[in-house]
Amino acid sequence: MVYRPTARVLTVLEMLQTHGTMSGPELADSLEVDARTVRRYVTTLQDMGIPVEAEVGRYGGYTLRPGFKLPPMMFDDQEVLVLVIGLMMARRSALSDSERAAQSALAKIERVLPFELRGRLSALQEAALMDTPEADTQVESGIVTALTLAVQRNRQVMLSYAKSDEASERVVDPYGVVCHAARWYAAGYCHLREDMRVFRLDRVQSVCLLESSFSAPPDFDLLEFTLGSFEAIPDRWNIDVLLRMPLDEARRRVPRELATLTPDGEWVRLRSSIHDLHWMARTLIALGCPLRIHAPEELREAFRRLAHQIYLLAQ
Fold it and tell me: Widest CA span of the chain, in angstroms?
């Protein structure tokens, strides 16, 4: 790996930010330089006003002064690329104002990029298509934030939940939050119904963290429970398809959050529940393998429409 001198100096700063204290030999090994060069890089940082302190002795090393306010984060080209792709996907995340916030963040990143990298990322935004289902509902970002915080801290919440014309207040032990097919859900134990439930977050009107805590089941599989519960939701299509491909290949190519896969003789049975039938048709055809549709019958029509669209494009 080849570093420019400035990049090496900034790498020393990043390593000290990450690890707290590092010895001269550790820094030298990581940068593939000698100890004298490391001392020169540290001196450069100190000349820039960054308080890097040296501790002598057998267990000494270099550290940033406690309480030092770190400068803005710095990213390499590959990290910037990943950030931009993530922001492009965030536009369709179903969170309120996600498109505006993502576009604003992208603009800020572009303003500080070198000209060459700026051109590459501009091309990426213009030419790349993120084939993810478009959100048909919006969720307040504060609701997602509050619930994920409750999950992390094992805190119960009071949900104000509206389903159809029925509104209710209920205490819930949230076990996890899932974003599936452009919709957000929370799964956990509902004390009002005295049973496990999955909640659509676009129906949550407010979340209040309570002081009471809970213990989640140690073997709880959030994705499996959430996907399994979708079969009882009336506004979704329950997919039952056989794929002619090895099970290990199917597991590599089909996201776990999209469907459950089980062996069925020489086939693999794919079961899923999703509200966008045409997106599912495009996803299945992209697998490029023979398949048999067991349900729903409407999926066959979605394939016919997709085939007709392809035919028209080929004219």
Answer: 77
Rounded CA-CA distance 2/31 in Å is 10
Among residues 64, 97, 114, the one where a domain terminates is 64
Give the distance, in angstroms, between the CA of residue 2 and the centroid of all CA atoms in the same chain: 31
- Give the domain extent around 205: 141-232
Q: How far apart are CA 11 and CA 43, in angstroms?
A: 14
Instruction: Show the tokens assigned to 212.
Output: 């009471």
**Tokens at 288, concatenated:** 């490029």
> Residue 210: inside a domain, yes or no?
yes
pLDDT tens digits along 22-38: 888 888 888 888 888 88
Beta strand spans in 100-227 (E): 155-163, 166-180, 183-190, 195-200, 204-213
Residue 147's beta-bridge partner residues?
A: none
Block residue for tokens 């009107």: 205
Q: How many domains does the chain have?
A: 4
**CATH code at position 40:** 1.10.10.10
How far is the C-alpha of 81 from the C-alpha of 124, rounded, in Å?
Answer: 9
* Same domain? 223 vs 274: no
- What would the pLDDT profile of 254-311 be if each residue is shown by its tens digit? 987 788 899 999 999 998 888 888 889 999 999 999 999 999 999 999 999 988 888 7
For residue 178, the Cα-to-chain-centroid distance in whole angstroms is 10
Please give the structure tokens belonging to residue 45: 């940082």
Between vectors from CA 104 to CA 103 and to CA 105, what angle results, nearest 5°? Answer: 90
